[in-house]
Design goal:
Chain lengths: 253, 360
């Protein structure tokens, strides 16, 4: 078989999403962000929402999300993305509005904005990357850092007596009447990636249908921050993160 | 749908003027002495008429960031608060200046520092015109001295904000916010359609169409060379604003030997003090800055060459006086008279200070 026969369109099983541009990605090799960005871009394209989507980027590793997906973006102050999304969706109710936030952004500095946007049932989708660490600033303790987990600001491990406990913010959010979807997924296997894509699509559909706030928590790896190879980080996540942050729907109505 | 003359509080006038101007969204958090703004909006329920969104946020921080989101969509978005709440909004104001977003922030000042008092003050002058938030930026600042100007400046602030893609503030205080006066409310304007916003604000995040690149609203630029260029662009814009948008009022300046300089409520008190002084044969005029930034530097410098002395009257410990002294540049003495902590000066107090500090 000739090379051009192999490269024929009917044999295509994988491609770069149409909405992802050629900008050089700043994410570390092995990081979950790249996969989730790809899924967001694919879902927007498949739902034909590129002209109706406004993304809100956070402060953290995903601060440059706007560099990679060709839609309109707003870059928020640290933790404030749900406030920006609230006004954007209220003022443009026929648009699809989503935030893309990390654990420090969503569950530490932006806790109030997150909980109150969800409590009001803002018709927004929140993509929440939980890797238990501050990646952008160099591996400091996050609100979701596990007990005894070592970070640059908990070098002896997170002492829950003095540093607090891992914050299961999705469990809190699932209790709120304004929330229609609170689900925890991951992207470490092909099956998990497919499931995550379905949940991102559902969250975007909920935004368009005005069903309330959807939160898709992606339990993720930060192999650089965790100081592991990508493969070891996936194993470590399954072994340590999943027991603390169990995969599955907490709420889906 | 025409102009209408009514009797109301300054805070209420802000709310009604906003609805009539075609504001798209108000996002606020209650704080004395300005809660009538959000209360009036909620009672008037403009979402049933113009479609204006009114939302009580969980904090001033959230409210200003909602304004950021609304402004990023090219919408007329505003918030209001009083001094302690305005301190919380400084993050968002700096980000809006950095992202070049037009919006209106109303500060109905009360006395500080800290929780301070709920009585009127002008102690946020420095915070407003010298920065407040981080970074080299300027906030277009309008200082109304009547309920009428509270109503008029809503539209003016939005006009200037959108003309220059910069946040604008109405800096007022508890006196102007709470007092009732006759006010002619502006004529009604239709809210702009999405198509009109797309045409007028091609930078707005309204959804990327096939004919343009993505619109990205951000204040972030990690390349220092590019960030310096951004800052130079901001500074060039600020110089245009300073050359173009200075506004002030002169009262009885033609034959005056001495000049009072005051803004907002303090300027109202000075009008009476001028009458008292002139009865005693002291020829005094008033220069009232209407824009605090851009500041009326040139006219004050010119008066520095004509007058014998100046007195700034402020509800603070001496803030605008620094800008007046910079403008006068040592030509004549410039003194300050202020009351603190929510105390409002009296015309007699102003006259006594004028005689003690300036007229010798």
């Amino acid at each position: 078989m000739e090379k051009n026969q192999i490269l024929s369109p009917e044999n295509l099983v994988y491609a770069k999403p149409e909405l992802m541009n050629d900008n050089h990605m700043h994410y570390c090799p092995g990081c979950s962000h790249g996969v989730v960005h790809k899924l967001v871009a694919e879902v927007i394209r498949e739902m034909e929402l590129q002209e109706k989507t406004i993304g809100i980027a956070p402060v953290g590793c995903a601060v440059f999300a706007y560099n990679y997906i060709d839609i309109d973006w707003q870059e928020a102050a640290h933790g404030r993305a749900p406030a920006l999304a609230t006004a954007t969706k209220r003022l443009l109710p026929d648009k699809m509005v989503f935030t893309y936030q990390g654990d420090g952004d969503l569950a530490a500095i932006g806790t109030a904005e997150t909980i109150h946007a969800a409590n009001r049932g803002e018709n927004i989708a929140i993509i929440f990357i939980n890797n238990g660490i501050y990646g952008m600033t160099g591996g400091q303790m996050a609100p979701t850092t596990l007990k005894d987990m070592k970070t640059s600001t908990s070098p002896e491990g997170r002492d829950t007596q003095t540093m607090g406990n891992p914050l299961k913010i999705l469990d809190l959010l699932a209790l709120l009447d304004g929330v229609c979807l609170a689900t925890r997924v991951s992207v470490h296997t092909a099956a998990a990636v497919k499931k995550t894509k379905r949940m991102i699509r559902l969250a975007f559909e909920n935004s368009m249908a005005g069903k309330g706030t959807s939160i898709v928590e992606v339990v993720s790896t930060c192999n650089s921050g965790w100081k592991m190879t990508p493969a070891a980080a996936n194993d470590w996540m399954v072994e340590n993160m999943f027991p603390a942050y169990p995969i599955g729907d907490l709420k889906n109505i | 749908m025409s102009e209408e003359t009514v009797l109301m509080k300054g805070n209420e006038a802000i709310a009604h003027a906003a609805i009539r101007y075609g504001v798209d969204g108000y996002f606020g958090y209650p704080i004395t002495p300005q809660s009538e703004i959000i209360e009036t909006l909620m009672e008037t329920a403009p979402w049933k008429t113009t479609g204006m969104v009114v939302l009580q946020a969980e904090s001033e921080v959230a409210a200003i960031n909602m304004v950021y989101g609304g402004a990023a969509c090219g919408k007329y978005a505003m918030t209001s608060s009083s001094s302690p709440g305005i301190s919380l909004k400084q993050e968002g104001i700096s980000y809006m200046a950095g992202a070049e977003l037009p919006a209106l922030i109303v500060n109905v000042q009360r006395g500080g520092p800290g929780l301070g008092t709920i009585q009127p003050s002008q102690a946020d002058y420095f915070q407003t015109v010298k920065g407040g938030g981080h970074g080299d930026y300027k906030l277009i600042t309008l200082a109304p001295n009547s309920v009428q100007e509270m109503a008029d400046f809503v539209g003016l602030a939005f006009d200037l904000a959108f003309k220059y893609r910069n946040p604008a503030m109405i800096l007022t205080d508890g006196v102007i916010g709470q007092m009732m006066e006759k006010v002619k409310l502006p004529a009604w304007r239709r809210r702009r359609t999405e198509q009109e916003i797309r045409e007028q604000c091609p930078w707005a995040t309204l959804g990327k169409t096939a004919d343009r690149k993505p619109n990205i609203i951000t204040s972030l630029e990690l390349d220092s060379a590019a960030m310096e260029k951004n800052n130079e662009r901001f500074q060039a814009k600020y110089r245009v604003v300073e050359a173009t948008e200075v506004r002030y009022e002169e009262v009885k300046c033609n034959d005056a030997d001495y000049l009072l300089v005051a803004f907002g409520s303090a300027a109202r008190i000075c009008l009476k003090a001028i009458d008292l002084a002139r009865k005693e044969g002291i020829k005094v005029g008033l220069l009232r800055p209407i824009t605090l930034w851009p500041f009326p530097t040139e006219i004050l410098h010119a008066y520095g060459g004509k007058m014998k002395g100046m007195l700034t009257v402020e509800l603070n410990a001496g803030q605008m006086v620094e800008d007046v002294r910079l403008a006068v540049n040592g030509q004549i003495p410039v003194a300050h008279y202020g009351r603190l902590g929510g105390i409002v000066p009296t015309p007699d107090g102003v006259l006594a200070a004028l005689k003690e500090k300036v007229v010798h």
